[in-house]
Write a structure and sequence with these properties.
Order of helices and strands: HHHHHHHHHHHHEEEEHEEEHH
CATH class of the largest domain: Mainly Alpha
Distance between the termini: 65 Å
Structural class: alpha+beta
Number of helices: 15
CATH architecture of the largest domain: Orthogonal Bundle
Number of strands: 7
Number of domains: 2
Strand content: 15-25%
Largest sheet: 7 strands, mixed
Bound molecules: iron/sulfur cluster
CATH superfamily of the largest domain: Hypothetical protein, domain 2
């Protein structure tokens, strides 16, 4: 039996029941694929259901306010994905009459959609012969062949894409999903793969030679840059000061004011005095380490109780922080600390 038949028959018996697999609606597949970038399936399910309930179609997505969209996205991270969804929905409304495009090249033009996502939508929803080359597929493929090409190189991905295209069956959508799912649940990225239950084991060179840990071959990763931040929870009665980030990582999301670098209690008090901010007390609160794809933030918060309400600041109550403002994951531990103390 060839690889595609083995994969399809395994998938038919083992596919997971997921909310976006109920139909082949490109809107559903698109939203799920964007959410699944950088996020585990288990974590995405509840976000996806909440998102589809509030934003059931392209028209609603094109017209929703950015603040509400980011609030719905809160906790998923990589917020540019949400902004691109809205931009793409507006483009579909303007350029495609509100109908999701069905041609791979047109799908690829939409903001936030790269080759992988365009291939997934085109194959799953429209039967196009477009292989989805993600980390799971690359792992299964290179292990199966003991393929020593560096999968971080775009040249390798292009070659593998062409090779897989040649073995794709008619049922391209299920083939792509089967390949990816096998990589996710059987040919595991870390730890021992579950070769005993793998439908490809008879064809797999890495299984034959027990060499799976050597594949896929990748470029050694550079260390992430590390930054230290001091975070200020400026409180007055049941409210705390927030501000909108204007640039860099997490742009346009809300945060508790922070400065780059570690500050001592003494330095914070001096800073407050030079800024003419009258305070009753300052004390050390929680710390948090937040890991992004290229950076690590070490954050230390201080609770500063002010003696009076400063009208020039943007204040929020606990309820407003939970319901109205999108607070990114990096600042969630400080939100919890604030909610715990009011
Ligand atoms: S046999 Fe093992 S190493 Fe080979 S593809 Fe299957 S799970 Fe991966």
């Amino acid at each position: 039996m060839d690889i595609s038949l083995l994969l399809l028959s395994w998938y038919q018996d083992n596919r997971r029941i997921l909310p976006w697999r109920k139909d082949k609606d490109p809107y559903h597949v698109w939203i799920s694929e964007i959410m699944l970038q950088q996020t585990r399936i288990e974590a995405v399910i509840s976000y996806y259901e909440r998102f589809i309930e509030r934003i059931p179609d392209i028209f609603t997505l094109a017209n929703i306010s950015e603040d509400e969209l980011l609030k719905l996205w809160e906790g998923l991270g990589y917020y540019s994905r949400a902004r691109n969804l809205k931009k793409a929905a507006m483009m579909i409304m303007n350029d495609f009459g509100g109908v999701f495009p069905s041609i791979y090249e047109e799908i690829l033009k939409l903001p936030g959609i790269g080759e992988y996502t365009a291939s997934a939508i085109a194959s799953i929803c429209f039967g196009a012969k477009t292989p989805t080359i993600d980390g799971n597929v690359l792992r299964v493929y290179t292990r199966m062949l003991e393929d020593e090409r560096n999968v971080d190189l775009s040249r390798t991905k292009k070659q593998i894409r062409e090779e897989i295209e040649k073995i794709m069956p008619k049922d391209t959508g299920n083939f792509n999903e089967a390949f990816m799912e096998l990589g996710e649940v059987v040919c595991l990225p870390s730890g021992k793969p579950k070769c005993e239950v793998c439908p490809l084991k008879e064809k797999c060179c890495a299984y034959k030679h027990q060499s799976w840990s050597k594949f896929p071959v990748k470029t050694l990763k550079q260390d992430k840059k590390e930054y230290f931040y001091t975070v200020f929870l400026l409180c007055y009665q049941d409210k705390v000061v927030i501000r909108k980030r204007t640039d860099g990582l997490l742009k346009n999301l809300w945060e508790f004011p922070s400065v780059l670098g570690k500050m001592s209690l003494k330095e914070i008090k001096t800073l407050l005095k030079t800024q003419n901010i009258a305070f009753k007390s300052v004390h050390k609160s929680v710390s948090h380490k937040h890991v992004f794809s290229h950076q690590i933030w070490y954050m230390q918060a201080y609770v500063i109780t002010l003696t009076k309400y400063e009208p020039s600041f943007c204040w929020a109550s606990g309820m407003e922080l939970c319901e109205k403002y999108a607070i990114p994951g990096a600042f969630q531990p400080f939100l919890k600390a604030f909610l715990h103390n009011i």
